[in-house]
Amino acid sequence: MTLMSEDPATAVQYDQESEGPEVDLGYWRQFLEDKESTKPSNPLAVDPSTDPDILAEVQRSWDEFRTKAAVRAFGEEVLLNGVEKVYSTAKAAEFFGKSNQWMYWGLRQDEPNQQVFTYKDGSPILPERVGKMGKRRFSLPIIREIALSCWRRGNLTEEELQEVMAKILLAEFGEGAFAPPD
Q: How many domains does the chain have?
């Protein structure tokens, strides 16, 4: 017996003899191709006024981080290539086990050169702002830079830094990446 939905988003084929549903990937492949063609111009989700050299360094560092993780057991098949993952202030704070007020504290710029979250060179980490309200969006590379900033500053211990990095890897590669191989 085969059941097929007319809606491409729910195009699942069930077979009595199979162990589970067969998913028609044609729709999703097209969806991902369309998503790839409309990739955002600011993939790191940082403030557009950030120095291009810093952006290039963050992107290089992020690519290196992902490559090392992929080599260690996170295959490309588990990655959601082309899908930008961004988080609200509250969700970004969860990576650190902190409140969104803690994030606001680290991002505020009361006095010049006094911001808590900074890049290696001391320039402030400014996440991208979107919408009329100017809500902040945090990408995984920016959350990683904030973690490294807090570690350099002494706000995170090495164990806490490792926990945050593990959460970032989990968010990037998914829970299936940590499953033991069959």
A: 2
Note the pLDDT tens digit of each residue in 92-143: 999 999 999 999 999 887 776 678 899 998 888 988 888 899 899 999 999 9
Q: Per-residue pLDDT for 5 more than 60?
A: no
Short-list 144, 35, 4, CA closest to 13: 4
Residue in this structure with the two tokens 């993780």, named with its chain if needed? 69
Residue 1 lies in a domain: no
Which band of pLDDT confidence, cut at 50, 70 and 90, is reported for residue 171?
confident
The domain of 17 spans 8-37
| Cα angle, residue 116 at apex, residues 124 and 110 outer, rounded to 5° | 80
**81 phi-psi bin (left φ>0, alpha ψ -120 to 50, beta other):** beta
pTM of this structure:
0.57
Structure-token pair, residue 100: 């969104």
pLDDT band at 163 (very low <50, low <70, confident <90, very high): very high
In a shared domain, residues 88 and 158: yes
- 32, 56: one domain: no
Give the rounded distance of the alpha carbon of 112 from its chain centre.
29
H or E element in which residue 27 lies: helix 26-37
